Structures are given as C-alpha cells and as structure tokens.
Amino acid sequence: MKNILTVLALAVAGSMPVAVTAADPAQPATPAQRATPAQPATPAGAAKTPPQGVAPEAGRTELPPMFKELDQDKDGQISKDESKRSAETQSSFDSMDTDRNGKISLVEWSAADKSKQRSKQ
Questions:
Q1: Three-state DSSP class for residue 36
Q2: What is the dihedral sign for C-alpha 66, 95, 75, 52?
Q3: If 33 and its partner were Cys, which of 23, 29, 42, 72 is the partner (CB 3.0–4.6 Å)?
Q4: Which stretches does UniProt call biased (Basic and acidic residues) (predicted)?
Q5: What CATH code is assigned to 62-120?
Q6: How far is it, in rounded angstroms, from Cα 93 to Cα 98?
C-alpha cells in the first residue's frame, strides 16, 4: 500500500509545473531587470475569440437582444432546450439549425432573421 501511495505522489508531483527563476537569487537584480514590469498571466479560456458559430467578420459588438436572452449559458449558441423560452424560435428551430448540430449559431440566427425580413417586404 505504501508503494502505491509513493508512486501516486510521484506521478502527481511530476505532472505539476515547476516554477523556475531566471535570475540567480544570490545576485541582485540589475536596474533594467527591476524596471521591466511582469506580464500578467492570461486566465485559461480568456482568449479573445468569438463564440462558436460566430463568424469573425460578423463585426458585431452586441448580440441581437432575443438571441442574447435565449442563450442562457452564454456559449454563443441556442440549444433546443434554450429555444423553448420562445414559441417562435422553438417552432422554427429545425429550419434555423441548418448544420443540424442541435444548436442555432449567431450565423444561423442572422441568416434566418434576414430571410424573415425579406419575406416581410
């Protein structure tokens, strides 16, 4: 039992990152090293990429209000469950989900919205 715990502890310790200092702690930092500000760490998943299904060229700064309201988990897509909050969206979900992945992306939403506006004219 003790051997198993030792192996597990070593495996866990081996998978952890080790902090390494660039400078020798015995030597003081130079003025140039002290003047260089440290770069803040970027939190995981904080990359500035658009949500799935959102075309980068869409250039939108704000989601359409109804899309935003329906997208409860804020993943940039409307699932079949989320569509149940709107009778109109729920009834047209299958026709809006053109890639048949079970979610309506902003691109699909915009295409359906444009189609709806053209039919009104």
A1: coil
A2: negative
A3: 29
A4: 68-87, 111-121
A5: 1.10.238.10
A6: 9
